[in-house]
Design a protein that fits this description.
alpha/beta; seven-stranded mixed sheet; single chain
Length: 185
Amino acid sequence: MDGPELVLVLRYRKAVTYGFHVLLGALGQHETPTRYEVRFGENVEETARHIRAAGDVRTLVLWSFYSPDAAALAEELKQIRELADGPNVTHLAGGVHATAEPVQTLDAGWDLAAVGEGESTLLSLVDAKGDPTGITGLAYRDATGNVKRTGKARQRDLNDFPGFALKWDKFNALEITRGCVYACP
């Protein structure tokens, strides 16, 4: 069998495992023609090692964080880029901060910001072998530096996907509601 066409490297931190587990749950049951691998980077060095090990294969580094962690993770992003970077590597930030502050997220160094719920965006990215062209739910800077938003991600029913990832042996509490009970976006 041929190697992967896409490598997903999760900057996997205890503070945001539940969100990743939900994304992986969706990915685990998604049928796609794309050959992909998922790798977990639990610190800067391990994340960089996974990026380097991917070689020339298109690599999406997935980040998820809250606003209080944004500055510290922007520093980690800089360190990881110094250790392992290349034209085939795209850093995608998701989670609360990227949704609420996509421009600030891009200004801090991420290539893409996932805005809103990430399941349909991630599945579309995997189907497209990591190419964000035409995929909704993203913000990025174009060649001239202008921020582009690709529209609202398709929101899926909570029952469409499991809240855990059997394929990667990742479990979390069951999710019975989405979003902020205080009407946050």
